[in-house]
Amino acid sequence: MGEREETPLKSPHFVLIHGISGGSWCWYKLKSMMYNSGYMVTCIDLKGAGIHPSDPNTILSFDEYNEPLLHFLSSLPPHQKVILVGHSAGGLSVTQATHKFPNKISLAVYVAATMLKNGVLTEQDIKDGVPDLSEYGDAYDLEFGLGVNQPPTSATIKKELQRKILYQMSPPEDYTLASMLLRPGPICALLNAQFPEVNECVEKVPRVYIKTMYDRVVKPEQQDNMIAKWPPSHVYSLESDHSPNFSSPFALFGLLVKVAASISCT
């Protein structure tokens, strides 16, 4: 579910995937730039995110959380390919999609994103790909949909910390918008994002990583570790916080256009 307005003026077709607690609304600046430049663009709400009506506390599996993206890809016409762009935890959605639909994806772009070939399988995967906000103290508001004696089912960064952690370089109006629209994210589902059965065709999907140099969520050293373990074809950097879709939209748009032009899109 989510906004799927498209314009047939020009390929390639970008599909933008938000991170935890976000939604398709996170891409409003990028979508406007892409649309005005004649590109096709689709922004998807994952299950329980954005305007999707599901309660995130009921979403316990990653397959369920990522179903809107997988459904979208499965419904594409034969031989049509898209460029997937995943932000933050949206990188897990992109990776699962490349495992399941490698022939539907012309390029996978990770923006300040979790890029783990097999998902979250090991303690090192958690160290590399899962945000560690312990330096900020009790940083999360947690919900316990399975009961207080069970692991939390959803989490949101506390409102008083969102500016400092997520949007320290972003315009105040974007931070204000985000503070009004962020929803609890289904962390139980995300920590169960595991793809142990590797489809070797996944390696045929070109990957690009866009680093965010002042990121306080997926820290630069974490990004470097994931890049080293599963090297993409190209790595670019932005002088940005964790949310370049707000803080550096023109630079991010320029990079996306650049990487799209470097491949043959159909």
Account of the protein in words:
- By secondary structure, the protein is an alpha/beta fold.
- Helices cover 33% and strands 17% of the residues.
- It is built from eleven helices and eight strands.
- The chain has helices spanning 28-36, 62-65, 67-74, 90-100, 123-129, 159-166, 172-181, 187-191, 220-229, 244-247, 249-261; strands spanning 10-17, 39-44, 82-87, 105-111, 140-143, 154-157, 207-212, 234-238.
- α1 (28-36) crosses α11 (249-261).
- Mean pLDDT is 94; it is low at 4-10.
Keywords:
266 residues, alpha/beta, six-stranded parallel beta sheet, two-stranded antiparallel sheet, globular, methyl salicylate esterase activity, methyl jasmonate esterase activity, AB_hydrolase_1, methyl indole-3-acetate esterase activity
Instruction: Output the helix-strand order.
Output: EHEHHEHEHEEHHHEHEHH
Structural Rg: 17 Å
- Helix/strand class: alpha/beta
Strand proportion, as a percent range, falls in 15-25%
How many strands? 8
Which sheet architecture does the biggest sheet show?
6 strands, parallel
With helices defined by DSSP (H or I, 4 residues minimum), what is the helix count? 11
Low-confidence stretches: 4-10
Q: Strand order, biggest sheet?
A: 2-1-3-4-7-8
Cα-to-Cα separation, first versus last residue: 25 Å
InterPro entries: AB_hydrolase_1, AB_hydrolase_fold, MES/HNL
Domain AB hydrolase-1: 12-233
Protein name: AB hydrolase-1 domain-containing protein
Pfam families: Abhydrolase_1 (PF00561)
